[in-house]
Design goal:
Layout lengths: L4 E4 L14 H11 L6 E2 L3 E6 L2 E6 L6 H12 L10 E11 L3 E5 L7 H10 L5 E8 L4 H6 L5 H5 L5 H18 L2
Length: about 180
């Protein structure tokens, strides 16, 4: 894995802070908190650099993530071209149990709209993905959902402190695999 860009997906605006759909942002913030580096701003993303790796939070809505990824590739390819296989996209995944994750390469979107946007923009699915599990969340809402039809409601739900601890434990496990 020769990753040069780590891109955390989520939705901008205060109303989406600490929702399950913003797990990618939370991971980027987690990595940033391990450094003393300040976030810098570009048109469609915020970023900081950790060694040779650039960590990014897109500032476009999840379903338009391809726009931020495309801009980031152009912005950071000034010295040498960044290829899709050098990108790691971090996002929520309701098909994976809360507290678990999957690090994968060259996978379909599996219905994730942010990933669909990236695949469409890059014209390839040959990039890395860190899929952070949010499935099996115990909420009143989940009891009503029964099925994928209303998964959008789950991903926009605020994360409880208990669930946030499980998500942060995933961050602790996976960060050393990605940044050494």
């Amino acid at each position: 894995m020769n990753v040069k860009l780590i891109i955390g997906l989520g939705n901008p605006d205060k109303e989406y802070e600490k929702t399950f759909h913003n797990v990618g942002f939370l991971f980027a913030d987690f990595l940033n908190n391990k450094t003393e580096v300040q976030w810098k701003r570009s048109k469609n993303f915020e970023y900081f650099k950790e060694g040779e790796i650039v960590i990014i939070k897109s500032s476009v809505f999840m379903n338009e993530s391809g726009k931020a990824v495309s801009e980031a590739i152009k912005y950071f390819s000034q010295k040498s071209a960044i290829r899709p296989e050098q990108i790691l996209i971090v996002h929520d995944d309701a098909d994976i149990e809360l507290g678990k994750y999957k690090l994968q390469f060259n996978r379909s979107s599996a219905g994730h709209k942010g990933i669909e946007s990236i695949i469409y923009t890059l014209k390839t699915q040959k990039f890395w993905r860190l899929r952070i599990g949010i499935g099996g969340v115990k909420t009143e809402l989940l009891a009503k959902l029964r099925g994928r039809k209303k998964a959008g409601e789950l991903v926009l739900k605020k994360i409880s402190n208990e669930d946030l601890k499980k998500i942060c434990s995933v961050f602790e496990k996976v960060a050393p695999e990605i940044i050494s």
